[in-house]
Amino acid sequence: MPRTTNSQISVEEAFRSLIREEVESQLRPLQEAVDQLRSVSALLQQLSPLASLVGQIAGPAVTVTAVKRGPGRPRGSTRAATARVLPSGRGGRGSNARDCAIIDCKRPARTKGYCAAHYQKLRMLAKSNRLPPTWVDFAPPHSVPDLKLPRGRAASKALREAAGK
Ligand SMILES: [Zn+2]
């Protein structure tokens, strides 16, 4: 009995000293890094009057470049943006100026006669077996009554019933 406890203790101690050595060896570079950082910050503090001087010199130059670039870039980018948006937007609406097939929907039709939102709804209804017969592809504008979807428990009930069909 005593032998085993002794050996256990010695193993434990050996293990502990191993860990201690390991940790210390790993912490040594960290310690050195911290020391280096301290010396660097001390150096920076010594240089701080100089740094503010450099800032004063560099300050105006930096603001000048900022002002030069400021008005130039946004103008160019907005011009490019409007140039890109206008032809496609007007052309798109002009060539197929058509409203969404859903009654009371003021958005333009985008896919199969439906606006983006209602086409999404159509696809969802079709996927869940609940597409009303009125929701046909390429229905005339404002000809299809909107469908109010049930919410909460009623919604899951409707989905279950539709799935059972
Ligand atoms: Zn719509």
Task: Give an overview in words.
This protein is mostly helical and 165 residues long. It has a domain at 116-164. The protein has 3 helices and no strands. Bound molecules: zinc ion.
Largest sheet: none
Compounds present? zinc ion
Distance between the termini: 77 Å
- Helix count, DSSP H or I runs of 4 or more residues: 3
Low-confidence stretches are: 62-67, 76-95
Mean pLDDT: 75
User: Based on DSSP secondary structure assignment, what is the total number of beta strands?
Assistant: 0
Strand content: under 5%
Helix amount: over 70%
Taken from the alpha-carbon principal axes, the silhouette is elongated
Radius of gyration, in angstroms, nearest whole number: 37 Å
- The helix-strand sequence is HHH
Q: What structural class is derived from the secondary structure elements?
A: mainly alpha
Short description:
The protein is mainly α. It is built from 3 helices and no strands. The chain has a domain of 49 residues.
Feature tags:
mainly alpha; single chain; 165 residues; binds zinc ion; 0% strand
How does the SSE layout of this entry go?
Layout: H1 2-95, H2 116-127, H3 152-164
Bound molecules: zinc ion (ZN).
